[in-house]
Amino acid sequence: MTGSGAFFVGQVRLHARSSEFDVERHFTLIDTDIATLTKRFRSDRRAGPGIQLAFLRGSGRTLDHVG
Question: By the 8 A CB rule, do 3 and 60 touch?
Answer without folding.
Answer: no
